[in-house]
Amino acid sequence: MLEIRPNVARQYIDAVSVFEAWEDAEREASQVRGGMYWHKGPPSAPEAVYLVRTSPKGAEKSLGPKTPETERAYARFLERKQLAQERLTALAEKRKEHERMNRALRVGRVDPIVVKVLDRMTSSGLSDFFRVVGTHALYAYEAAAGVVVDDDAVATRDIDLLWDVRKRLHFATALARVDSSMIGLLRKVDKTFRIKDLDKYTAVNQDGFEVDILRREQQGEDPHPIRMSDDEDDFWVTQARKAHVLMDAPPFSAVVVASSGAMARMNTLHPLAFARFKRWMSGQGDRDPLKRRRDALQAEVVESMVAQYLPQWQAAAPN
Questions:
Q1: pLDDT tens digits along 64-76
Q2: Fewer CB atoms < 10 Å away: N or C end of the chain?
Q3: How large is the average pLDDT for residues 35-39?
Q4: Which residues touch 96 (CB under 8 Å, ≥6 apart)?
């Protein structure tokens, strides 16, 4: 485990500041998407004008007749929408500049496909339903710590996404809002993604990169089996042993950088909860011995990282 160079650290800090400002601008702009217009009354009562709010998908809601109050609301909305869009456009350009600088200074090393998937999930409003678990979580921890861990600890060609089955109804609404399925969303990133014939919880692209979607073991009224959408070609989510531990652990989030310089936010779990889970996995006799050794290595790396570089997470360790 090596500390990143000072110039790389400075660039990462500056890039994250711009990225987080862009996130704030995106949230602000989302509140004023759609529009407002004055709906004229019928020919028999042309003076009966109403203010109407429109959603991005064309739904309409009347906000009341034209009055000084609704005229002020209309003016405030237009001003807020213009300012939000101007700020978002400016920060999007700054984000691109920093992504170019990230690439030039070799700030990141995450596989670009991972960052593209995370970015697509965020832009589609789906990131809050998932946590990155497994090996790729180490990239979030090392980014926060300002270090680079040994390649042996992070070598993998798949990403594990833990889906919160408790939020399945809200997830279905959010997925319908973007007129897609989970496999459809991945194909917007890479059109070669396909669900594997034998492992319906895994999608693989032409380069052999895999996306696995996991869930906790069935509890209470959890449906099982469960497909992520009505699309017949979509994921069937697999149950993972003790996955409820990963879902219930405190959250951890960091901006990760691809080798291309692109950035995305990765949501995962408390690093010591991750380490504890990996310790447990390394002791499972029915697990592949090579994976068990890597589990133990990852637990050791993350524990050391927290002790040396992330002491604030040591104090907030889960029970």
A1: 998 999 999 999 9
A2: C
A3: 92
A4: none
Q: Which residue has the tokens 């030039």?
A: 104
Where does residue 191 rank: exposed (0-12), middle (13-18), buried (19+ CB within 10 A)? exposed
Confirm whether pTM is higher than 0.85. yes
In the 3-class helix/strand/coil scheme, how is the chain assigned residue by residue? CEECCHHHHHHHHHHHHHHHHHHHHHHHHHCCCCEEEEECCCCCCCCCCEEEEECCCCCEEEEEECCHHHHHHHHHHHHHHHHHHHHHHHHHHHHHHHHHHHHHHCCCCECHHHHHHHHHHHHCCCHHHEEEECCCHHHHHHHHHCEECCHHHHCCCEEEEEECHHHHHHHHHHHHHCCCCHHHHHHHHCCCCEECCCCCCEEECCCCCEEEEEECCCCCCCCCCCECCCCCCCCECEECCCHHHHHHCCEEEEEEEECCCCEEEEEEECHHHHHHHHHHHHCCCCCCHHHHHHHHHHHHHHHHHHHHHCHHHHHCCCC
Inform me whether the pLDDT recorded for 53 exceeds 70: yes
Specify the amino acid at residue 128. D
For residue 316, the model assigns a pLDDT of 64
